[in-house]
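Exercise: predict the fold of this chain.
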Amino acid sequence: MTQRIVASRFVGTLTEFKRLAYAKIEYALVICLFLAMTACLPASAQRHGGELLGNGVFEGGSGGDGRGGGIPEWAPFESGYAVDRQNHHGGDQSIRCDSLNPSSKRGAQITVDLNQKRATPVSVAGWSKADQVEGVTRSDYALYIDAHYMDGTPLWGLASPFSGGTHDWQRRQLLVTPTKPLKSITITALFRNHTGTAWFDDFSAHEVAGSGNFDGQPLAAPPFGAAAAPLVRVGASDGLALDLDRSGHIAGVNLGGRKVNSAAGGFYLRDVAADGPLVPVRGTTTPRKAGGYNIGAAVGALRVSFNTRIQTEGDAIAIDGEMTDLTKTDRAVSVYLALPVDALGWQWGQDIRHIQTIQSGEELTNQTRISAGATGGLSLYPYACVANAQGGIGIASQMDWPSVYRIFYNSTTRQLVIGWDFALTAKTAAWPSHNARFRCRLFRLPAGPPDWCFRAATQRFYRLNARSFARRAKQDGIWMPFTDPSKIKNVGDFGIAYHEGDNSIKSDDALGILSFRYTEPHTYWLPMPPDMPRTYENALALINKNAVSSDPEKRDMARATLNSGTWDENGKFNLEFRNEPWTNGAVFLLNPNPELPATTDKPTKASVSYTVAKAMAMYGDAARIKRGEQDGEYLDSLESWSDTQDYRLSHLQACPYPIPFDTNSRAPVLPQWYSTHTFTRYLSDDLHNRNKLLMANSTPIQFSIFAPLLDVMGIEVDWLDDKGNWQPDGDEVFNLRRTLSAQKPYLLLMNTNYEKFTSPMVEKYMQRSLFYGVFPSMFSADAATNPYWETPKWVERDRPLFVKYIPILKRLSAAGWEPIPSIQSSVPQVYVERYGNRLFTAFNDDRQRSHDAALTIDLRSIHLPTISRITNLITGASVPFTVHGTDCTLTLRLDPETVAALELK
């Protein structure tokens, strides 16, 4: 068999916790820790239609450990696999991976060339059996996929984990929902960083396309049928109106008097656990005394009671609904609002800089991968839109509580759709039994450039959630981790505004720096003796021993772990073993929900981290006099381990939100991010009542739901790859950060080797950050030792760059980022953004070539009738320009990866 060498990079789970040297965040769909690996692959399988894998049944050949010929079409991953003819799911054999070492890496992989003409979902499935597999359920034992788009950009680290412990054959499925056409996918039967034995068999992959594709699934959407008179109308002041028939179907969608639908729409329900079809909801439309209409139905085929209200809410239309199961059993149900919009040839907004023209036979969406819900997909942004030059329409999900939802446009059914996934179960107590609620708002986009449709939707989304995206943190400047800023010579040169740590509050006050107390909300790092074997039994025995310790801190954390530790599906604590500079031992994942019952003898993670009594002591007058003015709380690693599933019944009962179901088992489950959200919401409310701030690290990555609660967000990054090459975060990643933080400060910490991260790289880091209005700072290569700010040679080397760029960044941040730029570039690689109405940035994202870009500013839209001068704030030079009517035009020459900051006077 012909062999070729392909570099393959594999991504672990979301362990973006502080103190770990991060690898590069490559794409906003997933944010992961990268481990560079090299594998020897066979020639890629090339298939057209039907089954994509030539030998997904793992038949033929011999062991894939480098000594045998291997299974045909499958290559060994790292230490490979053995062939097992005694244990198999189908056929005559399977592959087996044995491990006695928790750091071993085994498996098999295959690359499939797709060369897609349009973005098409790919469904991949496979089976595995396990014997005594140690460790928390995570993506190291999984059906695992890396992919590349046709433009060469990667989509790395998609995984559907198998259960640990011992189990019979278990099926996992993974739906790849690309945002652009895929060139290839690499599928791996992965078993690494675990001990035990895992078998793999019967893998399969198919493209999901055509008329049978709905929500990335092989589903046919049935029509709603002809409208039944009489029709009633619900309209918003922005010109959006829905016409409803007496059965609750949406018979018409009107934008400013322009009808934009060719068919009907409405609500679908689907019994996911039964793999049932989409069922249109046919009910009764009745007027509400408070305005709008109710739609009520008893969907007999699914034995679900369904009610929703549709009403005007200012310049939008609000839709609030709920479902109740009538069988009194555990259910896994999806509900869809299908808004009929004939948008062929319109634009779909992917993010603020990327749009796609809608063509027939495709489904457009922007999702990240999770382990809950019908498809394992979650919309990356909480809103979406379609538009043309005459205007458009958007859907925004609610931001009050977490939910598993997806927004997409299906050009076959010609519907703009939002769908939610719920477990209707009696295992909830804080939430009503067998019940779920959903909410969204619909809004109209005005006429304008269609390539700005997502930006216009962003602006509307901020208005719909004005309180959530108002800026409370007024300071502008960089992030200082732990080090006492007063120890740095001429510290004012660096523009420090936010100090992670409460170790120097009084000196911070004197310098005008805000101080934040550190908490990691959902973990306990248990130190273990170096010679103690890293087993689940030993970790649990040590926790129980510490629970009766005379050391109150050790005792309280052990008891909190026992009382609020999350459980996997087998009733075992979710934990993993780590050896980091700050702790060598076990990391327990905890539920920080403040509503879990807690007492002095039985504390929880929430009760040991933050209570009203603790807050009164920290923020009261006595503490202020003694220690200084503490300005708020800092939450570390906010989205780390977020996709871990919690099956502990008491935790499901205490969740104050409707819960989803596991993607594979369809069983009710509590994702870690739901519990982390309850704690974050509690802190946010209490701190804001005290006029204090909430800051968090490692967000936004996958979950937009945290952004409304936070005043300052940030993330740690490493822009050097494993070979020391420059690898900055891409535009899609920065767009997510900028958009979800709105005008709130967003901060970066560079965790890298500063001997290799040279001064020219630091300047490139600052220029890229300046374009997006993001503050760049520094920490440590391993996020713990030898910090940048305590190494004078690095500080002095880069001092002039901070002096040059941070004051400009402060001006941009204070003016505030505007989603509608009112400026256009003639060169696609030269991006532009606006801050306030007089400051603009331009950035050449081409890493190879310089570009001369003509920039056109619409003076009317920024309310500047005349201008006398344009200055490049970075060079201080005046920029020539011309004005024709209300358009101001100038030309900039930008070298690769360089920025200009323009001020209009």
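Check your answer against the key: The mean pLDDT is 92.
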